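Allow me, if you will, to draw on your knowledge of protein folds for a short while. Thank you for your consideration; the sequence and its tokens are set out here:
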Amino acid sequence: MLRRCFLALTAMFAAPLALADDDLWQRLQSGGHVLLIRHAATDPGIGDPPGFRLAACATQRNLSAEGKRDAAAIGAAFRARGIPLGPVLSSRWCRCLDTARLAFGRVEEAPMLDSIFNDSEAAGRARTREVLARTSAWRQVGAKDNLVLVTHDVNIRALVDESVAQGEIVVAQPLDGRLQVVGRLPVSTVVQRRVP
């Protein structure tokens, strides 16, 4: 009896979440959104080893095998749903570039998306302002696709005050010089859901 009640409650609360995901995917089909994607899963750790270099992936914390599979699955989910994608911009960290390449097959390096983890407060704010200016300019041209920004958790927190898991996507819209969050797509729902 207790188990049946638990299953009923689980189904009742899970249904609105699935509907929210479906609604979000539908909105993405019309374009005009900014996709803030945290790089996919990495080898364990925080930050990068001391003395890492951007030009040398072997000196950085990189995507794990799971992260590579998730990145490819993210791209497959977007293609299967016919989501229109415009520019794919990425931090110059290898884990971000690899996420973008595996998911979307293309990427443009964008230093404004580089990790602000070790930046001074002023430098971090400057990068954040640059991203907001870029997204506002993109929106003003009336883009019919979606702008993809692959970056780091600390950068996403600075942009929209939301902490995200590896591979998670925050969907936002530029509004009055900031990014307004429309919804989130956890990596688990993106890579495991099947299109009917």
